[in-house]
Amino acid sequence: MGFGVFTSKTFLILLSLIFLAAAAALGYVGINLVVTYKQYEKFLQNAYVMLPAIIILAVAVLLFIIGLLGCFSSIQESCCGLGCFITLISIIFAAGVVTLLLGLVYKDKIDSEVEKNMKFLFEQYNGKTAGSSAVDFIQEELQCCGILNYTSWANATFYQTNHTVPQSCCKRNETNCKGKLDALNMINTEGCEKKLEQLIHEVLGFAMLVILAFAVLELLALISLCIIQRKYDREGYQVL
């Protein structure tokens, strides 16, 4: 076996292992996006918000297949397998570019989506419905109160009826908190809208950075694989 072929095989095996690791990383990112969506799905009711996460998970599955195919093709020195390897990487690269574009487009739509759904759920809050549970969850999880701030509750039916804000507005470890606005030291005063938008943007931004990094890796892989394919052709390898 010539040095060039040995180097090519070693590179392909290394590249395949990188793709297997990338599949695991993307799977983690995709699942993290889905979990975040599920936690706050009452505030993100449009299905398009899930598109980046779905594509990321699909890309992770394809990367896993590519990694296995790359290892097999390298060991068997199969030009046919190598051709499939190149084709799948091309598909995955295109999917990554689409995901980046979708993420950038929908990132700007998230704020209006959150604002609209949050306003509706806070107005309908009564402490008993599923929507009320979603409001309590976000206030407890993000340690916030109201939409813009705690004063947002002043015009809500719940406050006008009970003259208190929900218990979920209380700070953690404040056992004597009754939700009274004359005891602001016991309740969270920051609004939930900005906190939720910031959380979603951070998760989506991290996902976009990961996708961008893999897109660059895939582009370099395509260039390298084309060079290796030409090397195989010159050295007289036959398609298996």
TrEMBL record:
Any S-S bridges, and between which cysteines?
145-170
Quote the subcellular location field of this record: Membrane
Recorded hits in Gene3D superfamilies, A to Z, give: Tetraspanin
Any Pfam family the entry gives: Tetraspanin
Which keywords does the record carry? Answer: Disulfide bond, Glycoprotein, Membrane, Transmembrane, Transmembrane helix
Membrane association type = Multi-pass membrane protein
Q: Where are the transmembrane segments?
A: 12-35, 47-72, 84-106, 203-228
Q: Which domain of life is it from?
A: Eukaryota
According to the UniProt record, one GO cellular component term is: plasma membrane
Q: Which family does it belong to?
A: Belongs to the tetraspanin (TM4SF) family.
The name under which this protein is listed is: Tetraspanin
Q: Which species is listed as the source?
A: Eleutherodactylus coqui (Puerto Rican coqui)
